[in-house]
Design goal:
GO terms for molecular function: broad specificity oxidative DNA demethylase activity; ferrous iron binding; methyltransferase activity; oxidative RNA demethylase activity. Keywords: Dioxygenase, Iron, Metal-binding, Methyltransferase, Oxidoreductase, Transferase. It comes from [Brevibacterium] flavum. Its cofactor is Fe(2+). By secondary structure, the chain is an alpha+beta fold. It has one domain: Sandwich (Jelly Rolls), CATH 2.60.120. The strands form five sheets. A seven-stranded antiparallel sheet has the order 1-2-15-12-17-10-5, with helices on one face. It has a four-stranded antiparallel sheet with strand order 11-16-13-14, with no helix packed on it. Strands 3-4 form a two-stranded antiparallel ribbon. The longest helix has 18 residues. The chain starts with 16 loop residues before the first strand and ends with a strand. The structure holds 2-oxoglutaric acid and fe (ii) ion (FE2). The site of fe (ii) ion has 3 residues, from loops.
Length: 230
């Protein structure tokens, strides 16, 4: 039963919606069973690459060590050479699971019905790489652009576990104005079109909001699926 202390933000109806040009938010896109299966599958891959240069770690960047753990699938983004690579020190990057590829197509079919600029991608999209991000409840990701891909194809982004606040800014700089969208467990966001290179980040995670049965007790997993080449 709801209590006085429940946050009203989380009780508003959450219809599928076009947020702005090229950006679509589809709440509850994944069933709990699908979320659980994705977490299980990701965990298996994490185990298979543990102790190798492809292990899920908090990457070090020019501005310091990230608080988010990252696992690269399909291709690995090499932070030293700024290139997508197929292998690191002879260790091949784990392939993109078919389930991820299928989900990306399903995501674009749904998103395309709400956004003209996403519609053309439902046929043409090639899922080539995925990034699995793990946020502990105190982790965050600063405002950035996803600019490492040549392709203008949209980014398909799935959330599991604790709610994360997705902050969407403009395309010119990381400053306001921005829109904050709570991404709950099972939500899908697709960003492409005029906002493919928009600045975005995750300023915070809401601890203890992961639903029972999603596969994660605490923290948040975000899976972004991308097309790299033109
Ligand atoms: O965690 C998220 O929802 C966003 C992740 C992200 O922006 C990225 O991996 O580039
Ligand atoms: Fe990003």
């Amino acid at each position: 039963m709801p209590t006085l202390f429940d946050d009203p933000l989380h009780q508003l109806p959450r219809p599928p919606r076009r947020v702005t040009a090229g950006v679509v938010h589809l709440p509850n896109f994944l069933s709990l069973a699908e979320q659980n299966a994705l977490v299980t599958q990701s965990r298996e891959i994490v185990r298979s690459v543990a102790g190798t240069p492809l292990a899920m770690v908090r990457p070090k960047t020019k501005s310091g060590q990230m608080s988010v753990h990252m696992l690269n699938l399909g291709k690995h983004w090499a932070t030293n050479t700024y290139r997508y690579v197929d292998a690191v020190d002879g260790f091949p990057v784990p392939p993109l699971p078919d389930s991820f590829v299928n989900l990306a197509h399903r995501a674009l079919l749904s998103a395309g019905s709400l956004s003209n600029s996403l519609q053309s991608w439902s046929e043409a999209y090639r899922a080539e790489a995925a990034l699995v991000n793990y946020y502990s409840p105190d982790a965050s990701m600063g405002m950035h652009q996803d600019a490492n891909e040549e392709s203008e194809a949209p980014v398909v982004s799935l959330s599991i576990g604790d709610t994360g606040i997705f902050r969407l800014g403009g395309t010119l700089n990381r400053n306001k104005p921005w829109t904050d969208i709570p991404l709950m467990s099972g939500d899908l966001i697709v960003f492409g079109g005029a906002h493919r290179r928009a600045f975005h980040g995750i300023p915070s995670i809401e601890a203890n909001t992961a639903p029972a049965g999603c596969g994660l007790k605490e923290g948040r997993i975000n899976i972004t699926i991308r097309q790299l080449a033109l």
